[in-house]
């Protein structure tokens, strides 16, 4: 028998998922990874703790699979992209990992937006920097923590740290390498990209690139002792979780918009030539000669999770006590709200937005007769509206023949139907529960010859799917609401910096 291990590290949970060679899921184990927010806009976590939690999840997944560790033929990891995980020259963690929800470098990005940096970066690298990009975070460290910056030996993404913990090898893949410092046309690192940001001194700290399905090392004795994996198990290079999710639902193909409704609003499409536009990141796809065009913002289901944590605490506690589902407990409230009209509009900008760092979330049209269900409906609608903002940008630039949806929200039929109605397009949801982990496992399988390529593996593995068709009447209603949603966001653009100024005034007054 043959099985594959896909590791998927998100922003709050690390998962180990074991798949049979036919794509069926054998087991999954999860561990929460605590976040630290020591200051406003900082979101960090302990790197050693992340590996410990991942190793525990791997050990549990092996036990749950009912098969010996030796049955696992290969391993690959995926994880949240962007952010920053640093090693010093002795290959030890250099401070905590910085997550892609971190926005401490927002003022630096704002400064760049008023200079030539944005235009230069877009032309050369295919994207403008944002608050959690490696470029802006490294500059923040240079300006605010120069001692740590000076000790930087290796610049990693999250999944590269997990690969290092498994194998002891340094490196990254094509998809992750293109977050800040590659030439969008040659798809390779260039010193000029570092020069744009004043980071020339760190060019040698960038990790060497390999294909996502290349074997880049083998499980070490130490990693085997911690995780329960067999020593010497091949480890493939892995990939950015955005790309892994699209691959896992069969959507890493030309003409397919893959939507990931997770912490981030991810919307992506593959092209055979680089097409640069400030509305999306033009990054490397899995293969050279292919590009993954990503229109994204940290403004998706993290807003829903915040609502649950903040305004549904009794239900959250009850779900934990009984082992039930908070989503099922609230489904009736949401269903009732979906069946009645509402004036509430929600802009889902709690952690970021397509409008830059200053934007903030808001409920508008809220009245005393509205209840929690009405607010939950507005949160879900606002999330889908934000995805539509990104999807419309991609429709402007690329021919779209199909829309696929994954992420935690895709398992809710009402939410998936809302996507179809708002986008006015059929939306396909596959039965793959752990799409990103499956995408990593497909790379692992291709690395040891079980599949010719990761994409062919995705095509060969049969997955059931459900197609949600748009309803004309609901689409018409959403069109009116989306138009107003957009107009309000545009009108708030000059006000958001003023709102942020109020907070600074309060802090200065208290001091």
UniProtKB/TrEMBL annotation:
<dbReference type="GO" id="GO:0016301">
    <property type="term" value="F:kinase activity"/>
</dbReference>
<dbReference type="InterPro" id="IPR050406">
    <property type="entry name" value="FGGY_Carb_Kinase"/>
</dbReference>
<dbReference type="InterPro" id="IPR018484">
    <property type="entry name" value="FGGY_N"/>
</dbReference>
<dbReference type="InterPro" id="IPR000577">
    <property type="entry name" value="Carb_kinase_FGGY"/>
</dbReference>
<comment type="similarity">
    <text>Belongs to the FGGY kinase family.</text>
</comment>
<feature type="domain" description="Carbohydrate kinase FGGY C-terminal">
    <location>
        <begin position="258"/>
        <end position="447"/>
    </location>
</feature>
<dbReference type="Pfam" id="PF02782">
    <property type="entry name" value="FGGY_C"/>
</dbReference>
<dbReference type="GO" id="GO:0016773">
    <property type="term" value="F:phosphotransferase activity, alcohol group as acceptor"/>
</dbReference>
<dbReference type="InterPro" id="IPR018483">
    <property type="entry name" value="Carb_kinase_FGGY_CS"/>
</dbReference>
<dbReference type="InterPro" id="IPR018485">
    <property type="entry name" value="FGGY_C"/>
</dbReference>
<dbReference type="InterPro" id="IPR043129">
    <property type="entry name" value="ATPase_NBD"/>
</dbReference>
<dbReference type="GO" id="GO:0005975">
    <property type="term" value="P:carbohydrate metabolic process"/>
</dbReference>
<dbReference type="Pfam" id="PF00370">
    <property type="entry name" value="FGGY_N"/>
</dbReference>
<feature type="domain" description="Carbohydrate kinase FGGY N-terminal">
    <location>
        <begin position="4"/>
        <end position="248"/>
    </location>
</feature>
<keyword id="KW-0808">Transferase</keyword>
<protein>
    <submittedName>
        <fullName>L-xylulokinase</fullName>
    </submittedName>
</protein>
<keyword id="KW-0418">Kinase</keyword>
């Amino acid at each position: 028998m043959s099985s594959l291990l896909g590791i998927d590290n998100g922003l709050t949970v690390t998962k180990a998922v074991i798949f049979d060679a036919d794509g069926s899921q054998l087991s999954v184990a999860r561990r929460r990874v605590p976040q630290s927010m020591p200051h406003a806009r900082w979101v960090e976590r302990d790197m050693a703790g992340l590996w410990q939690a991942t190793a525990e999840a791997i050990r549990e997944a092996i036990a749950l699979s009912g098969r010996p560790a030796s049955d696992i033929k290969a391993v690959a990891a995926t994880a949240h992209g962007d952010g920053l995980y640093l090693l010093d020259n002795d290959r030890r963690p250099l401070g905590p990992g910085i997550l892609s929800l971190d926005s401490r470098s927002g003022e630096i990005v704002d400064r760049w937006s008023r200079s030539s940096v944005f235009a230069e970066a877009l032309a050369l690298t295919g994207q403008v920097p944002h608050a959690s990009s490696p470029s802006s975070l490294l500059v923040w460290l240079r300006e605010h923590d120069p001692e740590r910056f000076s000790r930087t030996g290796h610049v990693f993404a999250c999944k590269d740290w997990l690969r290092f913990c498994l194998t002891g090898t340094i490196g990254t893949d094509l998809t992750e390498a293109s977050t800040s410092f590659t030439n969008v046309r040659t798809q390779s690192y260039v010193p000029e990209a570092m020069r744009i940001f004043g980071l020339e001194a760190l060019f040698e700290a960038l990790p060497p690139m390999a294909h996502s399905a290349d074997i880049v090392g083998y499980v070490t004795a130490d990693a085997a002792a911690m995780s329960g994996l067999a020593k010497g198990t091949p480890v493939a290079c892995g990939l950015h979780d955005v790309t892994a999710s699209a691959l896992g639902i069969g959507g890493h193909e030309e003409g397919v918009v893959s939507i990931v409704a997770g912490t981030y609003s991810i919307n992506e499409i593959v092209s055979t030539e680089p097409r640069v536009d400030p509305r999306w990141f033009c990054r490397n796809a899995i293969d050279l000669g292919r590009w993954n065009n990503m229109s994204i913002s940290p403004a998706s289901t993290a807003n829903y999770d915040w609502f649950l944590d903040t305004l549904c605490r009794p239900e959250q506690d009850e779900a934990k006590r009984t082992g039930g589902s908070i989503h099922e407990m609230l489904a009736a409230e949401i269903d009732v709200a979906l069946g009645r009209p509402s004036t509430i509009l929600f802009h889902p900008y709690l952690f970021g937005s397509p409008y830059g760092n200053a934007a903030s979330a808001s409920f508008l049209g809220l009245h005393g007769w509205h209840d929690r269900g009405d607010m939950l409906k507005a949160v879900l609608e606002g999330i889908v509206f934000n995805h539509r903002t990104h999807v419309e940008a991609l429709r402007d630039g690329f021919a779209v023949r199909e829309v696929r949806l994954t992420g935690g929200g895709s398992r809710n039929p009402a939410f998936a139907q809302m996507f179809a109605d708002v986008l006015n397009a059929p939306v396909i949801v596959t039965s793959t529960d752990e799409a990103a982990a499956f995408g990593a496992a497909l790379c692992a399988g291709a690395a040891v010859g079980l599949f010719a390529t990761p994409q062919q593996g995705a095509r060969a593995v049969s997955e059931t799917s459900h197609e949600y068709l748009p309803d004309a009447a609901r689409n018409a209603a959403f069109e009116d609401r989306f138009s107003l949603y957009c107009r309000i966001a545009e009108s708030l653009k000059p006000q958001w910096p003023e709102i942020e100024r109020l907070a600074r005034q309060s802090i200065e007054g208290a001091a």
